[in-house]
Amino acid sequence: SEITLEHVSDHTFYKSLDSSDNSSACFNSQRVRSKGQTIMLHVADDGTIVDILVCRFNEPIRYKAPPRFYQQFIGKKLNADLRLKRDIDGVSGATLTSRATVKSVREILTAHAKK
């Protein structure tokens, strides 16, 4: 299947031409402690998060958040409450990972809203 690319600010959204739902995916990397994490966010055309995937996590594994943390993002849209201690519960022992993930998600959704 063919893929189209759409660039918005510093973000690239990948969309399959075979997709019937017009969704797209975008990658974002953030520093967690001294190393990084890269996530992929699958976003519906209306800005709803379809899925989130950790593609790279270079910190010690003990700082990686459990799958239930990432599952909180599914079905959410960009709004003022898409933050830690509001719609998103942080993870004790993985606070920096939680912050980096929320920052990545908000950056991607902000760019998506500008498409």
Topology:
Blueprint: E1 3-8, E2 11-16, E3 24-31, E4 36-43, E5 49-57, H1 67-71, H2 95-113
Antiparallel strand pairs: 1-2, 2-3, 3-4, 4-5
List keywords for this structure.
115 residues; alpha+beta; five-stranded antiparallel beta sheet; 5 strands
Written overview of the protein:
With 115 residues, the chain is of the alpha+beta class. The chain is built from two helices and five strands, in the order βββββαα. The chain has helices at 67-71, 95-113, and strands at 3-8, 11-16, 24-31, 36-43, 49-57. It has a five-stranded antiparallel sheet, with helices on one face. β1 (3-8) and β2 form a beta hairpin. The longest helix has 19 residues, at 95-113. The chain is globular and about 40 Å long. It starts with a strand and ends with a helix. 21% of the residues are buried. The mean pLDDT is 94.
